[in-house]
């Protein structure tokens, strides 16, 4: 059974930084991609970033390019999302998940972690 567990998140001021971590379990090889999507109540979820565990190829939504960086540790089945220069519009619940088709199809997401950016 594939599972993801997120950590990190919290409350920061405009322009601040946060790092999200995620550990995956249940995979039998590194031939998968994982990342984050975010969701605000009443709005569609948005793919934020994904990374292929095999070669580290990364994908980002346009609004976070240059501010967010996704990385992975293959040996620990972990991914990290370093978020810099945070803006109030980044406020959402962030879910770690398997990326099946960027930027819209995800699977087996975790419980989510709240990121709040105050203006």
Strand content: over 45%
Mean pLDDT: 96
State the total count of DSSP E strands.
11
Work out the helicity level: under 10%
Topology, please?
Layout: E1 3-7, E2 10-13, E3 18-25, E4 33-39, E5 46-52, E6 58-60, E7 68-73, E8 78-83, E9 92-101, E10 105-107, E11 113-118
Parallel strand pairs: 2-11
Antiparallel strand pairs: 1-3, 3-8, 4-5, 4-9, 5-6, 7-8, 9-10, 9-11
Structure description:
- Helix content is 0%, strand content 55%.
- It has 119 residues and is mostly beta strands.
- Strands 2, 4, 5, 6, 9, 10 and 11 form a seven-stranded mixed β-sheet that branches.
- The chain is globular.
- The model has no long low-confidence stretch (mean pLDDT 96).
Keywords:
globular; mainly beta; 4-stranded antiparallel β-sheet; 119 residues; single chain; 7-stranded mixed β-sheet; 55% strand
């Amino acid at each position: 059974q594939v599972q993801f567990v997120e950590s990190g998140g919290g409350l920061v001021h405009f322009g601040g930084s946060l790092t999200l971590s995620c550990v995956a379990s249940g995979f039998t090889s590194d031939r998968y991609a994982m990342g984050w999507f975010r969701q605000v109540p009443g709005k569609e979820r948005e793919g934020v970033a994904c990374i292929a565990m095999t070669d580290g190829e990364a994908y980002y939504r346009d609004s976070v390019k240059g501010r967010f960086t996704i990385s992975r540790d293959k040996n620990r089945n972990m991914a990290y999302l370093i978020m810099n220069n945070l803006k109030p519009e980044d406020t959402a619940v962030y879910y770690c998940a398997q990326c099946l088709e960027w930027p819209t199809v995800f699977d087996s997401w975790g419980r989510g972690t709240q990121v709040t950016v105050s203006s």
